[in-house]
Write a structure and sequence with these properties.
By secondary structure, the chain is mainly beta. It contains no helices and eleven strands. The strands form two sheets. Strands 2, 4, 5, 6, 9, 10 and 11 form a seven-stranded mixed beta sheet that branches. Strands 1-3-8-7 form a four-stranded antiparallel beta sheet, with no helix packed on it. The chain starts with a strand and ends with a strand. The model has no long low-confidence stretch (mean pLDDT about 95).
Length: about 120
């Protein structure tokens, strides 16, 4: 079992920044790949960014150049630095990982970009 807990969401004005965190606990020794997803109201959940334990990253086109994914393996924590936020970035952000072929999700943290 793996537990994931997100934090760092909130209300921010367009052009602002937020940093999300995802703390992992439990059977984490097998974790390689971790990712951030988001789900906006009325839309499907989508991949935002992913990172492997060796630091290989991947980003959705919509966030390239604005968001940065990182992880601290010693702290078992993944981060998402979000800059130049836009109203269309408003969503619940979830972290996800896979361990022994099972997918684990956090409960999400709400990011609202509005003036």
């Amino acid at each position: 079992q793996v537990q994931l807990v997100e934090s760092g969401g909130g209300l921010v004005q367009p052009g602002g920044s937020l940093r999300l965190s995802c703390a992992a606990s439990g059977s984490i020794s097998s974790i390689n790949w971790m990712a951030w997803y988001r789900q906006a109201p009325g839309k499907e959940r989508e991949l935002v960014a992913s990172i492997t334990s060796s630091g290989i990253t991947n980003y959705a086109d919509a966030v390239k150049g604005r968001f940065t994914i990182s992880r601290d393996n010693a702290k078992n924590t993944m981060y998402l630095q979000m800059n130049s936020l836009k109203p269309e970035d408003t969503a619940v952000y979830y972290c996800k990982t896979v361990s022994y072929r099972m997918s684990y999700w956090g409960k999400g943290t709400l990011v609202t970009v509005s003036s």
